[in-house]
Structures are given as structure tokens and as C-alpha cells.
Design brief:
heterodimer, A: alpha/beta, 16 helices, 11% strand, B: mainly alpha, Histone, subunit A
Chain lengths: 480, 92
């Protein structure tokens, strides 16, 4: 049953093919067997998982109705707070930090009686594209242990891909859900900025961060998204009054086919891996056969997005990470004065990439350089936003690769940060503009490593990208 | 361009090893060169995008609410005395 989707597990529970405790035990056993080699989990909550599962079994025994996520084992990225559990964000500076409250998304999942089976590995504070920047361990790609799983939600992607969880939560600041989903062959949804509360997510870059899901199917992504979306008093950027009605879980597939899909010419650039280009072409053919119309579009400022992102993200990160001052978190050490205490704690507690980005962020915000870098980047961000607004005048959904290559070797890009940053080149414009994006595995490939494609939608039109994804999955199911 | 890494590390309150200083200096130099491409664009008439969304302002009534007590926060603190947080001297 561990290879079941959330939907299938739910049906099995309702029809009493197995109990919730049996489900949790099966996943716990899989973790025990597989995770020594994969290192996806930072902590596993066996006791909590089994106790929630028992509660669900009691509900079932009494014949009470259960929600779609009741008894479903989910993995949670370790930058999302669960009350009473360690939350490290992959950083040594938070190695002893126990969360004092539940993130809003966790509160929502607990109310649904979802089983929170464990916390997953990530690049430190979600800064990275390979999960190699974790202060704790290097997670491996289950399709080939010598390859990275992508990042920063690498642990969550691997947990789902290796059947160690039925679904997972991650966070996406520049591609951190979609890129590992592509590398590991799972579905990764980054919702619209404001669609999901960020309360209780350890902040990286607050104008870009968004919590989303990693799942086996697009339908499961819709189930998890519906469970975590909604306005929250504690997050003033979360948006009220979005009504998704029934279209997330029961989309009208014929209506969906009226949507026009755009192909941005700037995303098919030199340096795009041949295998990736081929798979995207194949996906387009399948979607055309399924009935969708395609249109070429242009997003002319695409090439500037990487620079804009690597100015804005470190600027916000350097500000957000100022709170790790050695006083509230971390070890105190025997520093002689306050300034030394800050410097020593931060110097020891942060890893290389984190320090590099804090210094870069401090630089672009500093008095002499603010206008030339930070302010300029904010303006070009507007131009990138206008590109998408223009494109969405003539198309409803945009199709692109998720990442320029399949997974790469562990260690291959750690010495060259710019090259590492390029692996998010197709996903980060979506965060700059705050749009919803999803990565879906391209089917019918022969290579060993999975490749994903990305669908981008209008703000708060998750239903469009989920719907097109559903049509694609069904089309491939029928034709295979 | 070359960046005075020691100065910005000091501003950011991060201690770097000599090896880190050298490595970061090279890395950041390359990254900053890459950023120069933004200067190609004329943005004199463009308004900056200052947040994740620019949809509308969000207001709420400023009313007191029952929130969790500060206890768990105190328990989390690395060093406490009675119910207070203990921190090093700020003024010499």
C-alpha cells in the first residue's frame, strides 16, 4: 500500500481494506529500511504518528465520516513548525530549537487528522538547489544514489518518491518545491503568493516564500492544497475571499480544454538539456492531442530574472536571518562583548552558502550600493511582472521546463555557486511575480532520471494548472 | 568589481575564516559581474515592486486578542533567570 496515492489510501481506509495504524506502520517500516541510504528525514515521530492513526481508526470503528487526509502519513519540511518538535531549518544554529507553536498549515492538517510522520531535510534555511547545504546530512536521489534530489525541499521530494510518505509539505522561494519534484519524479505545487499562510514557516525571503506540496499525483496536490489554503489572521499577506468552489477536487475536464497554453520562446534557450527539450515537446504533443490549443508567447525580460532574484532574495534573507544573533537561539559561547558574541555565533552556526548570501544581501542593501543593485532589481521585477501580465492576456496557462537539466551528481556544482543558481532559472520568475506553478513528471521517458515540466497560472488560478495537469495524467494513463 | 569582504562581513556580524574570505571574495565578484546586465535596462519610468503582491492593502481592526502566553518562549530561551531572559551586557 505504500505506493498508493492519498486518494487510494483514503478509499482503502473507508472501505476497511486496512486500518490507519497499518498504513502508518507500513510507512514507518519503509523509512526504517530505506532512509539509512537516502537520508531524507531529520526526525521521525513514530509515537505521534501511531497515536493519530489510532484516533482515526476509532473514528472509522464508530462509523464516523473522515476527511480525505485522515490517517494519511505526510512528511513536513523541517522549516515548518510543529509544536513540541525540533525545527532546525537544516541549520546548526537551530539544532536545539523546539517549536513553541504549530504553523497554520500544521494546525489545518492536524484538524484533518493527517499523520505527521516526520520532518525532512533541506538546504540550510532553504537556501540551495540540491539539499547539499544542509547542516546535517546529504539527501540522495532515490533514482540514483550518486545524484542530488534537488532542493531545497529535497527531503520532502525523496520521502514521497521513495514511498516513505504519501505526500509532503515543502516551501518554495525560487523553485524549492518544483525543482526537487522534477529531479525525483513527483508532483510539486507552489501556490500563488498569499494563497497559503506562511505563519510558522521559518522565513527566508518574505516576498517570495510560499508553502506548497509534494505528492504522487496532480489530484493529490489538489487535495493537499485545498486543505492548507485560506486566509490567516497571523499572516497579513495571506489573501481572504478566494473561493475555489468545487473546481479543485472535481474539475470539469471538458471546460478545461478551452484553456489556451502558451510556450515562452525565452525558456527554450541555449544550454537547455536535449533530453529536457525533447520531453517538453512530447508533453506539448500529448496536450495537443488531448485537445488543448497552443500559442507562442514572449517573456522578454526572462534573462534578467536570475540577477533580480539573487539581489532580492539575499537582501530579504540577510534581514530575516538577523534574528539568529546567538542570544535567542544557539549556543552562547564565552564571547567577551556583544559584537563578538554575534559574530562568533553566526560565524560558527551558519554554513557557507548562508554566509555567502547574508554578505551579498548586506552588500546590495548598503548605503553606497542600494540604488545600483536593490532598487534597480525591484524595478526590473516590475518589468518581469508586466511580461507575465501581457502574456496572460492571450493565454491561460504557460508551459515550460521545470529545470534546465535532470538531476546532477552530488558535489558537481558545490564549488560554483553561479552554476548552482542557474538550476532555478525557469522557476524563480514565478516567485518574483507571485504566480502559482506546478512541476509534473513527464511520462513515457526512457532515461533513468525523471524530468518534470512546469505549468504556470494566473494569480489564484491553481485550478487551471491543476486541471491541465489532471488532463495530462489521464491522457497518459489511457494511452500507455 | 571587487568587494571589501571584511567590511561587509563586519556589517553582517558574521565571522569568516581567512579561507572563507578568499573564496567568498572570488564568488561574490563573479556574481556581482553577472548583475551588471541589469544596467542595460532603462528603468527611469518604472515603479519598483516592493513586495510579493501588489493587489491591495490589508486592514484589520486593532482589537486585543487572546494569544498564547509568553511561557513557552521563556522556556525556549537558552539562558533564563526566574521568569526573565538572561542576556549579556550590552553597554560596557
Amino acid at each position: 500500500m505504500i505506493d498508493f496515492t492519498i486518494k487510494q489510501l483514503h478509499r482503502g481506509l473507508r472501505e476497511k481494506q486496512f486500518s490507519a495504524v497499518e498504513v502508518s506502520e507500513a510507512y514507518l517500516k519503509q523509512i526504517e529500511e530505506k532512509d539509512k541510504a537516502l537520508e531524507a528525514y531529520l526526525s521521525v515521530d513514530r509515537e505521534g504518528a501511531l497515536s493519530t492513526a489510532k484516533g482515526v481508526d476509532e473514528l472509522l470503528k464508530r462509523g464516523e465520516p473522515i476527511g480525505l487526509l485522515a490517517g494519511i502519513p505526510l512528511a513536513i519540511k523541517d522549516n515548518i513548525l510543529i509544536e513540541g518538535q525540533r525545527a532546525t531549518a537544516g541549520s546548526k544554529i537551530l539544532k536545539d530549537y523546539i517549536a513553541a507553536y504549530d504553523a497554520t498549515v500544521i494546525d489545518k492538517l492536524k484538524r484533518e487528522n493527517a499523520v505527521l510522520i516526520g520532518k525532512t531535510n533541506l538546504d540550510e534555511f532553504a537556501m540551495g538547489s540540491s539539499t547539499e547545504n544542509s547542516g546535517y546530512q546529504i539527501t540522495k536521489n532515490p533514482h540514483d544514489l550518486s545524484q542530488v534530489p534537488g532542493g531545497s525541499s529535497g527531503g520532502s521530494a525523496v520521502a514521497v518518491a521513495a514511498n516513505m510518505a504519501a505526500g509532503a509539505l515543502g516551501s518554495d522561494t525560487g523553485g524549492s518545491i518544483r525543482q526537487p519534484a522534477s529531479f525525483c519524479g513527483v508532483v510539486g505545487l507552489k501556490p500563488t503568493y498569499g494563497a497559503v499562510s506562511r505563519h510558522g514557516l521559518i522565513a527566508l525571503a518574505s516576498s517570495l516564500d510560499q508553502i506548497g506540496s509534494l505528492t504522487k499525483t496532480v489530484e493529490d496536490a489538489a487535495i493537499l492544497f485545498r486543505a492548507i489554503t485560506g486566509h490567516d489572521f497571523h499572516d497579513s499577506t495571506s489573501v481572504a475571499g478566494i473561493d475555489y468552489n468545487d473546481e479543485l477536487l472535481n474539475p470539469n475536464l471538458d471546460d478545461l480544454k478551452k484553456l489556451v497554453i502558451g510556450i515562452p520562446e525565452e525558456y527554450f534557450i541555449e544550454g537547455l538539456d536535449n533530453e529536457v527539450a525533447d520531453s517538453i515537446n512530447k508533453v506539448q504533443k500529448s496536450l495537443e492531442e488531448a485537445g488543448f490549443k497552443f500559442k507562442k508567447i514572449s517573456l522578454p525580460h526572462t534573462k534578467y530574472a536570475l540577477s533580480v532574484y539573487y539581489i532580492i532574495m539575499p537582501a530579504e534573507a540577510s534581514t530575516n536571518l538577523a534574528r539568529y544573533d546567538g542570544l535567542r537561539y544557539g549556543t552562547r559561547g564565552g564571547a567577551s562583548n556583544l559584537s563578538n558574541l554575534y559574530e562568533e555565533n553566526r560565524g560558527e552556526g551558519f554554513g557557507s552558502e548562508t554566509k555567502r548570501r547574508i554578505i551579498l544581501g548586506t552588500f546590495v542593501l548598503s548605503a553606497g550600493y542600494y540604488d545600483a543593485y536593490y532598487s534597480k532589481a525591484q524595478k526590473v521585477r516590475t518589468l518581469i511582472k508586466q511580461d507575465f501580465e501581457e502574456a496572460f492576456r492571450s493565454v491561460d496557462v504557460i508551459l515550460s521546463p521545470t529545470a534546465p537539466t535532470p538531476a546532477f551528481k552530488i558535489g558537481e556544482k558545490t564549488t560554483n555557486p553561479l552554476e548552482m543558481y542557474l538550476s532555478d532559472v525557469f522557476t524563480l520568475p514565478v516567485n518574483l511575480v507571485g504566480l502559482p506553478g506546478i512541476s509534473i513528471p513527464a511520462k513515457g521517458r526512457e532515461g533513468k532520471l525523471p524530468i518534470g515540466f512546469q505549468l504556470i497560472g494566473r494569480p489564484f488560478r491553481e485550478a487551471d494548472i491543476l486541471g491541465v495537469g489532471r488532463v495530462y495524467e489521464r491522457f497518459e494513463e489511457v494511452s500507455s | 568589481m571587487k568587494l571589501d569582504i571584511k567590511y561587509f562581513a563586519k556589517l553582517a556580524r558574521v565571522k569568516l575564516s581567512p579561507e572563507e574570505e578568499e573564496k567568498f571574495s572570488g564568488d561574490l565578484g563573479k556574481i556581482l559581474n553577472h548583475f551588471n546586465e541589469l544596467q542595460e535596462l532603462d528603468t527611469t519610468e518604472v515603479k519598483p515592486m516592493t513586495g510579493g503582491t501588489e493587489l491591495r492593502n490589508v486592514f484589520r481592526e486593532d482589537e486585543p486578542r487572546e494569544e498564547r502566553s509568553g511561557r513557552t518562549g521563556v522556556e525556549q530561551f537558552p539562558k533564563t533567570k526566574d521568569d526573565f531572559l538572561s542576556v549579556p551586557k550590552v553597554f560596557e
